[in-house]
Design brief:
eight-stranded mixed β-sheet, disordered N terminus, 345 residues, alpha/beta, 51% helix
Length: 345
């Protein structure tokens, strides 16, 4: 482009100003990366003050990073929301999402992950069984190139022996029949790069088993180990029934083996019945032995009826999942959002 003398003279101050700005840029003036901490809460009011004290002291040490803390009140009926809002007023980096009712931890986690805007997202329980101090080691692993940093329990000694046994067998069964294995002794506590989070957001499931979804998306992973601490207050909201439902979600979400296995069971039972029928015919024709079979017939009918009902029950579980997904209801509903500001990242 040709400039006349007047145009060139007018353009010089602009170039000088741009050169001055570029030469005076300090590294601190570049946008720093942001960590998003996602904290699902259900009746955690008694322990939130201690939780924020420990978490914020850890995040303060990571001076190279901005942060946001996204707390999701999942229909609590104690003073959880009140305390969360109080901390949101005190610290503008705290965001509080109040769900319209109790949707469950999986939905609350999804709400927090959908809201997160950081370069890395870290789901963290508010009961302090997951030590916030581990975040420092997780960030180091992330800086070294890991897309996902898993927090793995060193032991489950604080769990009840029955719970330990059931959990162990669940992992074995799930990883044996599922299309995607989930790491043992790894919960929701992990660090995920933004690319991983974007992949999770594209998954359309309404009934969600987050541990399975985390494993399904893959990416480069590393592990940091930790010791589970006792709850600082309250008690777990996961009853035996909720754990059973969650286990069913995990199996039916990632495996069709429970459906296929009934074909093999049916074939086996049919073959046994055929062999037994041939044996009765042979005994009757060759030895003339009459086989009275009211008791055995009744037992066989009840046995086969029980197998059929079990098969129908498994089929019904999958049909129920299809029905739930077909309704396309939202995973969660946010009643109101409190606090928060845009992070620097």
């Amino acid at each position: 482009m040709q400039f006349d003398r007047l145009s060139a003279f007018c353009y010089i101050p602009y170039l000088t100003k741009k050169a001055f700005k570029i030469s005076n840029l300090h590294p601190s003036s570049f946008p720093i990366r942001c960590l998003s901490i996602v904290v699902p809460c259900f009746n955690e009011g008694d322990g939130l003050d201690a939780f924020f004290s420990r978490l914020e002291s850890v995040l303060f040490k990571l001076q190279a990073y901005d942060y946001e803390i996204i707390c999701i009140d999942d229909g609590s009926f104690d003073n959880t929301l009140e305390i969360l809002c109080r901390h949101a007023v005190r610290n503008p980096r705290i965001v509080v999402l109040e769900l319209s009712r109790n949707f469950g931890k999986e939905a609350a986690l999804t709400a927090g992950i959908d809201t997160a805007r950081g370069d890395a997202v870290i789901p963290l329980d508010a009961d302090l069984q997951h030590p916030p101090e581990l975040i420092v080691d997780m960030v180091k692993q992330w800086e070294n190139g890991s897309d996902v940093v898993l927090a793995q329990r060193q032991s489950r000694k604080i769990d009840h022996p029955v719970q330990r046994l059931v959990t162990q067998w669940f992992y074995r069964l799930h990883n044996w029949i599922a299309e995607c294995a989930i790491p043992r002794d790894v919960g929701d506590f992990r660090l995920m790069d933004k690319r991983v989070v974007e992949a999770l957001k594209r998954l359309p499931e309404r009934r969600r088993f987050m541990k399975g979804l985390f494993a399904w998306v893959g990416f480069r992973q590393s592990i940091v180990e930790f010791v589970v601490e006792p709850r600082k207050s309250g008690r777990s909201s996961f009853s035996a029934r909720r754990l059973w439902v969650l286990a069913l979600e995990g199996i039916t979400s990632f495996s069709t083996v429970p459906l296929a296995v009934w074909a093999y069971i049916g074939f086996t039972v049919a073959m046994l019945a055929l062999v037994y029928g041939c044996w009765i015919i042979i005994k009757t024709l060759l030895f003339g032995i009459d086989v009275p079979g009211y008791a055995s017939l009744l037992t066989a009918i009840l046995f086969l009826g029980g197998i059929q009902l079990m098969g129908i029950g498994v089929l019904g579980e999958y049909i129920g999942r299809i029905y739930s997904e077909s309704k396309q209801r939202p995973i969660y509903i946010i009643r109101q959002r409190y606090g928060g500001e845009s992070p620097d990242a």
